[in-house]
């Protein structure tokens, strides 16, 4: 129902959002492909914080988790790229940091994330890909999650440093569906073209050698302390990220299922 001003009324919007969340919630406890009567309870995903170096496969695993648990995958890199593409004031400021392989300051990053997490589709839980990346962000996230009462898993995709460089220089992404490929390890069926929608694959502007070195360096200096913070609290769950995406996904599911 639209109001006179043409906007969807708040009550209607909330009602529909709640129904959508309930429907998503109902779907997520049925494993796809199981016959009636053989439904299996899947773990309630809640919040999944995916940590790992650039190129470790966080976005691929987020995509799989989204499909399996019907909760949104929130990539701070994608949120920022969207602002850059739309030329918003925040995007214009973030752009130069991203191009240089530097972290975007929290004064720009945090409001964008907070706004996204306040959307109704995040009520049941969500996957965070690319946040937190610093100790300060880890602490700030703790504050944001405190009142949500959702079970939270902090999962680190462990990949040896020497492999990351090739993972990043070889990465190609589909500009239409965001799917990632790797020319060395996971090439598309047809060279240069997305398997799903036939769009021409592109190399991200920050996947150039010099920028990659900077990003890996930033990861060591800024993100490793955040990881150590979770480890020191006994909350870090490590997954071997140096194996096929299917095996990584299975390890993650095993972690989510554990009490
Ligand atoms: P990757 O994990 O491969 O570096 P992302 O898409 O996650 O790629 O991030 C791309 C860029 O976006 C980063 O290099 C950084 O400039 C910026 N960015 C993403 N997430 C954050 C964050 N949590 N804090 C600050 N900057 C971020």
Any overview of this molecule?
Mean pLDDT is 83; it is low at 1-43. It is built from 9 helices and 7 strands. Helix 6 (135-146) packs across helix 8. The strands form 2 sheets. A 5-stranded parallel β-sheet has the order 2-3-1-4-7, sandwiched between helices. A two-stranded antiparallel ribbon has the order 5-6. The relative contact order is 0.15. The chain is 47% helix and 12% strand. It is α/β, with parallel strands linked by helices. Strand 5 and strand 6 form a beta hairpin. The structure holds adenosine-5'-diphosphate. Residues 54-55, 76-77, 80, 97-98, 101-104, 109, 130-131, 133, 137, 206, 215 line the site of adenosine-5'-diphosphate. Adenosine-5'-diphosphate binds at residues 54-55, 76-77, 80, 97-98, 101-104, 109, 130-131, 133, 137, 206, 215.
Strand adjacency order, main sheet: 2-3-1-4-7
Radius of gyration: 19 Å
The count of strands amounts to 7
SSE run? HEHEHHHEHEHEEHEH
Category by helix and strand content: alpha/beta
Q: Poorly predicted ranges (pLDDT <50, ≥5 residues)?
A: 1-43
Major sheet summary line: 5 strands, parallel
The rough form would be described as globular
Overall mean pLDDT score?
Answer: 83
Residues in β-strands, percent:
5-15%
What is the distance, rounded to the nearest whole angstrom, between the alpha carbons of the first and last residues? 43 Å
Helix content: 40-55%
Instruction: Identify every distinct bound molecule in the structure, by name, code or SMILES.
Output: adenosine-5'-diphosphate
How many H/I helices?
9
